[in-house]
Design brief:
- The chain is mainly alpha-helical.
- Helix 1 packs antiparallel against helix 2.
- The protein has a domain of 62 residues.
- Helix content is 63%, strand content 0%.
Length: 89
C-alpha cells in the first residue's frame, strides 16, 4: 500500500488578499468627485446656490439610505438616528 503524501496546498487568510485592502474603491472616488462637479454645473447653469446645497444633501442622503438598506447596517442606522435626534433639539 503506497504512503500518503502530505498536502502541499497552503491556505491564505482572507485578510491578506489584495481584494480586502482598505483602499478607496472606484465608486467612492467617483462619488467624491461627482458632488462638486454637479454643484458647479448647476451653478453655471443658473441655479441659485441656496438651492444647490439642499439638493446635493438630499442626493447624498438617498445614497446613504440605499447603502444602509443594501448592507443591513443596523449600527449605522442607529447612529444616524441618534445624530438626527440631537440635531433636532
Amino acid at each position: 500500500m503506497p504512503k500518503k503524501q502530505p498536502s502541499t496546498h497552503v491556505l491564505v487568510p482572507a485578510e491578506s488578499t489584495p481584494a480586502s485592502s482598505n483602499r478607496l474603491t472606484f465608486a467612492q472616488v467617483t462619488a467624491v468627485i461627482a458632488f462638486p462637479v454637479m454643484g458647479s454645473t448647476l451653478a453655471l447653469a443658473g441655479m441659485p446656490v441656496s438651492d444647490i446645497y439642499p439638493l446635493l444633501a438630499y442626493c447624498g442622503g438617498i445614497g446613504v439610505a440605499v447603502l444602509m438598506a443594501a448592507s443591513g447596517g443596523r449600527k449605522l442606522a442607529a447612529g444616524l438616528a441618534q445624530l438626527l435626534l440631537h440635531l433636532g433639539r
